[in-house]
Amino acid sequence: MERWQRRQDRTGGTAPADLPQALVAEAAHGPVIHAVNGAAHLAGVTPGARLADMRALCPDLRTSPADPAGDRATLERLALWARRWCPWTVADPDGGVEGAGLILDTTGSDHLWGGEAAMLATIEAELGHLGFSARAALAPTWGAAWALARFAPGQGTAPAIDADPAPLPVAALRLEGRTVLLLNRLGLQRIGDLAALPRLSLARRFTRPEPSLNPLIRLDQMTGHRPEPVSPPGAPPVFRADLRLAEPVFDPGPHLPRLCEALCDRLSAARHGARRLRLSVYRTDGEVGRIEAACALPSRDPAHLAFLFRDRLERIDPGYGFDLIALEAPVTEPLAPRQADLAGGADPGLDLSHLVDRLTARFGRDAVTRLAPVASHVPERAEARAAPLPAGPVAADPAPERAERPQRLLERPEEIRVLYAVPEGPPAQFQWRRRSYRVARFQGPERVAPEWWQDRPGTRLRDYFKVEDSEGHRFWLYRDGLHDDGRGGPPRWFLHGIFA
Amino acid sequence: MFQTDIFPAAQSRHPGGPVRRPGPTLCEVFPAAGAEAAAAGFVLAQLGRGAAPVLWIQERLAQSETGRPYLAGLGLDRPLLVMRLSRPADVMAAIEEGLRCRALGAVVAELHGNPPAASFTASKRLALRAGAAAVPCWLIRQAATADLSAARDRWRVATLPSAPDPDDPQAPGDPCWRVELFRSRDRPPGAWVARHERGHERGHERGTSNRLDLVAAFPDGAVAEAAGPDRRHGAR
């Protein structure tokens, strides 16, 4: 939820925090609530419930689609980010309704942060700076820390290390919902109740080997009788080339080829290609200047990478000069080594990706787009701007049988003044951009109905005409609606396209 | 792709013989007022067939004046990369970048007016690049006067009433244009009436008869006497 709010803040579409807002995920029986904000929580909306039920409870609930894959990726990035406190960090995405978390094995590193309580406070504050609210807890085992962070009484304060997990509910044992339900039916509400039972009867009752179904295993993991080590994933390789200069310089240009070669050596050793590049210069007065470039396809061609920065080096403000230049590739993709053909020529597809990179580096991210057809009858929706290089082979879809379309489409339809003989018929004369045209020949109408699943209610149908004046100007006009269609006044006319 | 149908009188006036397909080079098209879409259609008809993508660069002003290329109407069977840039200098730079890439089938650019960026030197650069990369480059110069340029071929395009539709007498049929090659490096100039037959709208397979018929515009020679020779002189 907070990740969503942050993205909204970035894109400028911030909703006020006092309106109930929920993120919705698709489930087997229709949409369910994935996460809620504070106002929705106060209104009684609970995560995991059906959207339809919650709408009955809170009619003005606003919803957006949830992004579980993005959440997971963010959590994994956060786990790497949390390596600033200790080397063993792992993302714990299976938090269920209580929320996902991070597990940090801080053995031997807490004294670096001034003790355990101070470290917990730092962690919460740093996560708060990132825009995430978090509850941190410290305990001798993974299970106990998990339970304390989610179920410990008190708001916001970090529970002490020797907090007793016995009064916590059994749901704090990381059990599945049906096991929790079963335990509750057996009258076991708290962990203490469970721990007081003889082990033999518990082992007889719960024989499943999965830890999330067997409270005995979870209990042992919490008390530390059964080991549960933190095994963090290896940090992703960092592709970076540094160049330390003896004297401060003002122009990184002459050093760029060497940096690119060093970076590409590292990339080819790891069989990776760079998708994004960042050139950082560290000025002598402490400032850091950065320029970024991106590739449409992974690349480790030093000349190409250097070319991407060619016209942009002057954007760096050198100040009093800089003495450290770093070129790194924050985003890389696997790229198998490829053999050039026997004649030594380059792959033409690669050539095209280089062109797209150069144009993108020079004119901005969305400068180059590929027009892709979209299945829609509304003319302005029949094409979309796609990424310049298709991810896979584009299926050549057969052109739909439809009437002729113009070669040029105006950015938005322009209203024209029209004289017509019959209301439902073609125009006889019209005026566009202060010039009047007399219609000599026409073709049409072609009726395009509004797409009710996308358009606002009350959108009128369009009758398209291809008209030609006596000088051979060919236009594509439409009448927006019909007389007496009950959707506004007399229909207006628009010019939408121009034929060759 | 060209079907030339030049009258005998016209042929005698043009000793170079029928129009032949130009090699990849820089061509400029100057549409008459209101014929910008016709110029784009003329360029599209000249592009021919192939799988290589086309890079179509528009100046923002040209786009707001005369619209953008519309995929559904173009009838292209190859990818179309579009760019919209604000400044003419950016357009020229983008064309030059595009002409570095031999994977492109063609580069088409639309410029509005006579900006200083589209100078003789810039056109010379583009012509050399187009020749070196063997990528045809078409400049559509909207609302521009034909000033000094190094383009190998320079065309003027105006609209004409369309050919009669065989099915519907009151409907416009195949588009017709009056095209004039007023300056060319390697073939005689001339004026033609071009009729573009776009096959796929007749229900044929897409692109089968995408054909441009060129008919000499002045078979009787009376008007051509007045306009032809001095144009040819002025051209080169």
Describe what this molecule looks like in 3D:
- The complex is a heterodimer of chains A (500) and B (236).
- With 500 residues, chain A is of the alpha+beta class.
- Chain A folds into four domains: 2-66, MutS, DNA mismatch repair protein, domain I (3-Layer(aba) Sandwich), CATH 3.40.1170; 70-223, no CATH class; 239-334, 2-Layer Sandwich (Dna Ligase, domain 1), CATH 3.30.1490.100; 408-498, no CATH class.
- Chain A is built from 13 helices and 18 strands.
- Chain A has helices at 2-11, 38-42, 51-57, 68-81, 116-129, 142-151, 177-185, 191-196, 199-205, 215-223, 256-269, 302-308, 348-363, and strands at residues 21-27, 30-36, 62-65, 88-92, 101-105, 239-249, 272-283, 288-299, 322-329, 332-334, 368-373, 383-386, 408-420, 427-432, 435-448, 462-469, 474-480, 492-498.
- Chain A has a six-stranded antiparallel beta barrel. In chain A, strands 6, 7, 8, 9 and 10 form a five-stranded antiparallel sheet that branches.
- In chain A, helix 6 (142-151) crosses helix 10 (215-223) and helix 11 packs across helix 12 (302-308).
- The two termini of chain A are 51 Å apart.
- The mean pLDDT of chain A is 81.
- Chain B is of the alpha/beta class.
- Chain B has one domain: P-loop containing nucleotide triphosphate hydrolases (Rossmann fold).
- In chain B, 29% of the residues lie in helices and 29% in strands.
- Chain B is built from seven helices and eleven strands.
- A ten-stranded mixed sheet of chain B has the order 1-11-10-9-8-2-7-6-3-5, with helices on both faces.
- In chain B, strand 9 (176-184) and strand 10 form a beta hairpin.
- In chain B, helix 5 (88-99) runs parallel beside helix 6.
- Chain B starts with a strand and ends with a helix.
- The model of chain B is unreliable at 1-20, 200-208 and 220-236 (pLDDT under 50).
- The chains are: A alpha+beta (500), B alpha/beta (236).
- The interface between A and B is large, with 52 and 58 residues.
- Strand 13 (408-420) of chain A pairs antiparallel with strand 4 (68-69) of chain B.
